[in-house]
């Protein structure tokens, strides 16, 4: 299926998929952050009534729109940067790698939908779904490199850089958002 998709030059479909996944990443992060703040504010100020709502509103918490826009921009940058890096390492055309990454983004899309549904019920299950989704994504990405007849070293370097970029984005989010 991947080889068939890559043989067709469906750049516009890849852009739509990447945009949808980035939008859902923004939606998920917004809901996730909102639930974290609400649960902390509720547990800290439980039973304080009007004071609780005043302090929650005056904490300077970024708006949901800001979260959405920040994650949307970061995820789009991530997908375009990782595509550029992989195209240079693997010595393949940018559009071919972009089509591969965007096709695999369907895995992220499904995982995000499940995570969005369960984020209100359990943070632990949300983390589990996200970890399983990312591991499955990386596994399929690693195996899809076989289509390009790439050495094992380049595969491992590519996956390592992918993980490194994810970690950098998570650190940026933790520090600044």
Helix content: over 70%
Total strand count, please?
Answer: 0
Tally the structural domains: 1
The structure class reads: mainly alpha
Radius of gyration: 19 Å
Secondary-structure map:
Elements: H1 2-7, H2 11-44, H3 50-58, H4 64-90, H5 94-118, H6 123-144, H7 152-176
Helix pairs in contact: 2-4, 2-5, 4-5, 4-7, 5-6
What key phrases describe this protein's structure?
177 residues; globular
Describe this structure in words.
This protein is mostly helical and 177 residues long. It has one domain. It has seven helices and no strands.
Short note summarizing the structure:
This protein has helices at residues 2-7, 11-44, 50-58, 64-90, 94-118, 123-144, 152-176. With 177 residues, the protein is mainly alpha-helical. Helix 2 packs parallel to helix 5 and helix 4 runs antiparallel to helix 5.
